Every structure is written in C-alpha cells, then in structure tokens.
Amino acid sequence: PWTEKARWALDWRGVPYAFEQFQPLIDEPWLRFKTRNVSRKATVPVLLEGREVFGDSFAIARHAEHVGTGPSLWPAGREAEIHAWNEASERALRAGRALFFARLVNDPAAQLDQVPAFVPRALRPALRPLVRSGIPYLRTKHGADEAPTAVARDALDDVLSRLAKSLAGTRYLLGDFSYADVAMAVVCQFVRP
C-alpha cells in the first residue's frame, strides 16, 4: 500500500517513472546499494532521481506535487490536514501489516502467494518453508510483532471509523480529490483486499 500511495501520486501528477518490483530479503542488498543506505532500515517505496533519494510515499508524493504537471493533490492551505490524514493512513497501514503477518504465519496458501512470480509453479511449494522462515525477520524489521492482534485490529478500526465519519455525505475528505484521499484509499485494502 505504501508503494501504491507513491505511484498514485506520481501518476496523478503526470510524473514519468520506471517501476521495479521489490522482493523482501532477496532485493534488499540491491536496494541498500542503490540508495546508499548502509545503516537504516531498507524499505520501499523509494524514488531515485539523479542523486536524490525520496525514501517514503509521502516524500515521493510531495516531490510529485512539485515537479508534476497534472492536477494538484495538495490544495492550498490544507497541508496540515493532508499530513494528519497521512499519519492516520500510516497508523492503519502498520496495523494492517501486523494483522497480515499474524495470518500469513499460519496460512500455507498465502505463503505460496509470497513466492516470487518468476519461480515455476511446480517449485513453489518447495519454497514455502523459506517464505515462512522470513516472516519473523520481516515482522521484527517492521515492528509488526510489537502489538497483539487485538491492538492492531482496534487501531485499524479506529482509523476506518474516523474515515467513515469524515466522508459522511461527501465524496472527498477535503472537498476535492487530494493526497488525503489517496492515503486513506489504500487503507481500505485491509477491509477486503
């Protein structure tokens, strides 16, 4: 969902980019090399533009706002509200990721879905234990093992309730389509992917 927020902003603003799929664990050394990151947690999305590195969806969306030519996602004077909605999105996405990992650890079919697409179908089941062994690392890396499932579900429910109340009787959070809508739209995939 973080990558989706960034790509939506880039597309909406008409900023050209080349997308490369990131495979956790497998592509991390490459990502660290490309971003000149030797000490911080390596995460995506990342936008590389020349020597500049935009290392999260919000930074990428802000960059798209500055360099793009499409319709604005940042209505004048509404930056604080957009920032607040993005923070709510981040909280909900972290909760959703925690719930995802909690289910993934016990779902063999979902584990097969995490095997890279280039792996032939006949070999995929043999790699399921490898996927399963990577789950604890990813949970720890992203802090998804810190909160019990009930806490994560409550956090997600809280943000979604706030979203529902804010959208009552209106189509967009700030009157017109904005990055606040993008940030919150991706949260809805945890309701029903």
Describe the structure.
The chain is mainly alpha-helical and 193 residues long. The chain has a two-stranded antiparallel ribbon with strand order 1-2. α1 (2-13) runs parallel beside α3 (57-67), α4 runs antiparallel to α7 (149-167) and α4 packs parallel to α8 (179-185). β1 (47-49) and β2 (52-54) form a beta hairpin. Helix content is 55%, strand content 3%.
Q: Give the amount of beta strand, in percent.
A: under 5%
Query: Helix and strand string, N-terminal first?
Result: HHEEHHHHHH
Helix/strand/pairing class, anyone? mainly alpha
Give the helix level as a range of percent.
55-70%
Tertiary shape? globular
Distance between the termini: 11 Å
> In angstroms, what is the radius of gyration?
18 Å
State the strand order across the main sheet.
1-2
Q: Mean pLDDT score, rounded? A: 92
Contiguous runs where pLDDT drops below 50 for at least 5 residues? none
Short descriptors:
2 strands; 193 residues; single chain
How is this fold's topology laid out?
Blueprint: H1 2-13, H2 28-35, E1 47-49, E2 52-54, H3 57-67, H4 79-104, H5 108-113, H6 124-141, H7 149-167, H8 179-185
Helix pairs in contact: 1-3, 4-7, 4-8
In short:
The chain has helices at residues 2-13, 28-35, 57-67, 79-104, 108-113, 124-141, 149-167, 179-185, and strands spanning 47-49, 52-54.
